[in-house]
Each structure stands twice: as structure tokens, then as C-alpha cells.
Design goal:
The structure is a single chain. The chain has helices spanning 2-24, 32-51, 73-77, 85-89, 122-137, 152-159, 210-216, 219-225, 245-252, 299-303, 320-328, 382-389, 423-428, and strands spanning 70-72, 92-98, 115-117, 120-121, 143-147, 169-173, 177-178, 180-181, 202-203, 230-235, 262-268, 278-282, 285-289, 310-319, 337-342, 348-353, 367-370, 393-396, 399-402, 413-416, 435-445, 447-450, 455-463, 469-472, 477-484. By secondary structure, it is α/β, with parallel strands linked by helices. The strands form eight sheets. Strands 1-17-11-14-10-2-5-6 form an eight-stranded mixed sheet, with helices on both faces. A four-stranded parallel sheet has the order 20-21-23-25, covered by helices on one side. Helix 1 (2-24) packs antiparallel against helix 2. The longest helix has 23 residues, at 2-24. It is globular, with a radius of gyration of 24 Å. The termini are far apart.
């Protein structure tokens, strides 16, 4: 049986290689080298996909990480900062994962170009943060954007507006991999084109692709030659992911033989984070465990806040020299995420992806740091957008901080219904963003609009049933209220 499976695998791989060869022959001359490297990476991924069967972890082997492998942030912060902070900053590069589109929020183009606060986009805020660092400490911390073929062109057009800012900006592109037919496991694409019927046959293969594409771009070697030692990687839509000097100092102050090559910022799980990846000890290594890797029988256990108390924020600090070494040895091992999709014509395909944090087990002296929740402030939905646009946060040099006027440090739980999903629609429903300083929970469903200077406190639930509309009057103060039915305010 095993022999039969091996023969089948070899046949599948031969067929795939032949198809990739045909595709490659249709590449334009200027694309040929890039697509060759992309396809080399895809072949490796496909080979591993065929070899792995079933969940990639054996549940009984999972252990909690040893105490010293996840350090509390406060312990790291109490060390204080040395006088030569600038020296450490000059060895740092900030990398933002910028491959995603704004489609889930109803926007065209890169997600990083959505306005999130005072007309500032995610990208604007990132540039302001780094520029502020460079001016304050007289340093040269560059910004690197990992784009995808979906975001590269639009992002590059926008970058021109930062030419006079004190921050060097580099970009490189994620790989472009072919989606494969779920049945035949062969690429759906007929040629290397991206338009027309080929529009949805390619995909960027998840942020785990950063190691190979960073290395292939030549930028990794260039930054090492410039004396850079660490990258701080995060999602561009995580507004809490700013350069933290205490963590940077902790990395730089380790003795040479004990240098930590990989730090993952984790934070305490709440009920809202049950699906987030967590750190475990597995076969003697610190390892990221994602929900997709958990056997079905143990999913509830994985979601338990009592057993797995922390989750990965995807704020990562990684040694450049280590990436180069592991990439050259082909030694970065990441679990494969199989992501099923249905194309517009109804064809079922799969795309093979990896996650950047999954490589933690390949690096030496890896460490988790349990950071405050404020370092995890992702904007995935308009419900998140409402929070960051509100008076819960103040904006200073591109960084959002929780307002001093809020009595408790947790953010309110906000659930906006489907009428608010798209950013444009969401904006038309608020004449001004309500005062939310004393809000605990907000649920809004149906056709609801808010007048100017509305104040929301405690738990507020507003439900307009189908066919009804609720206009919350200007100047209203709702505290622990349920509003339902029909409330129209019409111009006289």
C-alpha cells in the first residue's frame, strides 16, 4: 500500500511539474526568472502537501511551554532602556505584511489604503510611527512592505507621497502560486496571464512565504550588508504593532551565543480569541499550534481559555542572519494550510499556504513574550473600525493609545450588523462617531443611523426589524438600553 501511494505521489508530482513547465513557457521575458523561483517554491510546498496526511500533531505529545519560554512583558520592561537605544534601532527593520485587499470591508485595492483615523490610512500611520522614531533618536529604521501581486501596483503609486518623509521604504513581492483543481491537483491556469479568465487562478500563498520571497528578492542580503540584524514583522492592519523599545533592547542585550533568533508576541486569550494560534512545547521545541492542525475531537479543548491561555498576535521579531542561514539550508519547516475555495464558475480548487509564525520551531532560542492586549488592535471589520475611530483612543505620532478617560483597560465588545459591513455604508450611518468612553457592549442590527453627538454607555442593543428603520436622534444618551421597533426622524 505504502509503495502504491509513493508511486501515485511521484505521478502527481511529474504531472504537476509538466504543467508548471507549460505555464512557465508562456511567461514574458521580464517575468521568467521571478516565475521560475515562484514555481520552485511551489514544487517544494506541493511535495510536502502530498507527504503529510491527517493532522500534523499528535495530541498526547502536546505540552504546555516551560515557564521561562514565555516571558511576561513587565519583566522585560523593568530592565529599563540603555543610553544607546539609537544603536539598537539602527540594527532594526520594520516589515509590514501588505498583501491583503480591502474586499471584506467593501473596499477596492490594498487594505492598507483604507482611512482609519482622521483621514490617515494604515500605511500613513505606519510611516508616521517610524518617522517619529527616526527623528526622536536620530536613527535610520527603514520600512519594508511585503506586497502581493494584488497590492503591489497600487501601493507603489501611493509611496511617492512619502518621498520627503524621514523613512526609507523598500518593497518586495510575495510569490504568485497557482490554485490547483481539488480533484486532479493540477493548476487551473492555462498561461501566466492575470486577466480575463485567469483573474482568479493565482493566489499569494499566505505570510509564511516571507522567508523565501524576502531572500529571493535580494533585499535580505542588502539589509544585512547595511548592518541590520532584526526585523519586526506584523500585519499592517494591527494598529497596536508599534516598535517596542523594551523588546528590542531585550533582543540586543543577549550574549552572542544565546541570541534569541525569534520572538513571538502573545497575549492573554479572551472568549473572542478562541480561534487564535497558541504556543505549545512539542518534541522539545516551542511551536505554534493553529486550529487547522487540531484533530476534530480536540477542537473544544483547543478553544478552552483555561488550558491554552495565550494566542499569537503575529507581531514577530526575527534575526535576519538566521533567516538567511535557514533559507540557504532549506531548513524552515512550516505546516501547510490547505485553503479550499470555489471559483466563480463553481470549480472547487485548493490553495496551499503557510503562516509566518509556524517557522518558530526552526529558529534557535525562540521565545514568547506575553504582551499587553494594547499591542493587538487589528481592524478586520467595520466593528473594529468604529472602535479605533472613536474617542476611546487618542492618536499621537501615528500611534493609537487608549484614552486616559476610560476607567477600565478593556475595549468594548462591538457587533455591527450586515448594513454596516462596507466602509462607505458604515460612514453614511454615522453623522459623527458616538462617545464610547463608558461603553461595554454594543450590538446594532438592521437599518440604523446615528445622529451627531450620540453617547453610548454600558450595554446598548439596537435592533431594527426587517422593513423598519431606527434613527438615533442627535445628542441622545443611551445607557443600558435596548432599542427596537421603528424610529424615523425626517427633515421638516
Amino acid at each position: 500500500m505504502a509503495q502504491f501511494e509513493e508511486v501515485m505521489q511521484q505521478q502527481l508530482e511529474c504531472s504537476l511539474h509538466a504543467e508548471l513547465g507549460k505555464l512557465q513557457s508562456t511567461a514574458k521575458a521580464e517575468e521568467a526568472e521571478v516565475s521560475r523561483k515562484d514555481f520552485e517554491g511551489f514544487k517544494k510546498l506541493f511535495h510536502r502537501f502530498l507527504q503529510v496526511k491527517g493532522p500534523s500533531v499528535e495530541w498526547p505529545k502536546i505540552n504546555r511551554p516551560p515557564e521561562d519560554s514565555i516571558q511576561p512583558y513587565d519583566k522585560i520592561k523593568t530592565k529599563g532602556l540603555p543610553d544607546n537605544v539609537a544603536d539598537s534601532l539602527n540594527k532594526l527593520v520594520v516589515v509590514k505584511l501588505n498583501g491583503g485587499l480591502g474586499t471584506s470591508m467593501g473596499c477596492k485595492g490594498p487594505k492598507s489604503l483604507i482611512s482609519v483615523r482622521n483621514e490617515n490610512t494604515f500605511l500613513d500611520l505606519t510611516v508616521q510611527q517610524i518617522e517619529h522614531l527616526n527623528k526622536t533618536y536620530n536613527t535610520d529604521v527603514p520600512l519594508v512592505l511585503m506586497n502581493s501581486f494584488n497590492t503591489d501596483e497600487d501601493t507603489k503609486k501611493i509611496l511617492q507621497k512619502y518621498t520627503h518623509h524621514r523613512v526609507k521604504i523598500h518593497t518586495f513581492n510575495q510569490s504568485r502560486y497557482p490554485r490547483i483543481n481539488k480533484e486532479s491537483l493540477l493548476p487551473v491556469a492555462k498561461d501566466m496571464g492575470m486577466m480575463g479568465e485567469n483573474a482568479d487562478v493565482w493566489y499569494p500563498p499566505g505570510h509564511g512565504d516571507i522567508y523565501a520571497s524576502f531572500h529571493n528578492s535580494g533585499l535580505l542580503d542588502q539589509l544585512i550588508a547595511e548592518g541590520k540584524e532584526y526585523i519586526f514583522v506584523s500585519n499592517i492592519d494591527n494598529l497596536g504593532a508599534t516598535v517596542d523599545l523594551a523588546i528590542l533592547n531585550h533582543l540586543m542585550s543577549q550574549p552572542n551565543g544565546k541570541r534569541c533568533e525569534f520572538v513571538m508576541e502573545v497575549t492573554d486569550k479572551t472568549r473572542a480569541d478562541v480561534k487564535g494560534g497558541t504556543l505549545i512545547q512539542y518534541e522539545g521545541k516551542l511551536r505554534l499550534l493553529e486550529i487547522a492542525q487540531v484533530p476534530k475531537a480536540h477542537v473544544d479543548e483547543f478553544k478552552s481559555v483555561s488550558k491554552f491561555k495565550i494566542f499569537n498576535t503575529n507581531n514577530l521579531w526575527i534575526s535576519l542572519a538566521a533567516i538567511k542561514r535557514l533559507q540557504e539550508q532549506n531548513a524552515i519547516d512550516m505546516e501547510i494550510i490547505v485553503n479550499p475555495k470555489t471559483l466563480d464558475g463553481g470549480l472547487n480548487v485548493i490553495q496551499l499556504e503557510t503562516a509566518v509564525g509556524a517557522a518558530i520551531k526552526s529558529f534557535d532560542n525562540a521565545l514568547g513574550i506575553n504582551v499587553p492586549r494594547s499591542r493587538f488592535l487589528p481592524v478586520k471589520t467595520t466593528s473594529d473600525l468604529l472602535l479605533v475611530m472613536s474617542n476611546l483612543y487618542s492618536l499621537d505620532a501615528g500611534s493609537l493609545t487608549m484614552s486616559q478617560k476610560r476607567e477600565f483597560p478593556t475595549t468594548p465588545h462591538v457587533k455591527l450588523g450586515s448594513s454596516f459591513t462596507k466602509v462607505q455604508e458604515f460612514l453614511t450611518r454615522f453623522e459623527s462617531i458616538p462617545d464610547m468612553l463608558e461603553l461595554d457592549h454594543l450590538t446594532v442590527s438592521g437599518d440604523v443611523t446615528f445622529g451627531k453627538h450620540v453617547s453610548l454607555k454600558g450595554t446598548v442593543i439596537i435592533i431594527a426589524n426587517h422593513g423598519d428603520r431606527i434613527d438615533i436622534p442627535a445628542g441622545s444618551m443611551l445607557e443600558n438600553k435596548i432599542v427596537s421597533g421603528n424610529l424615523r426622524i425626517l427633515d421638516h
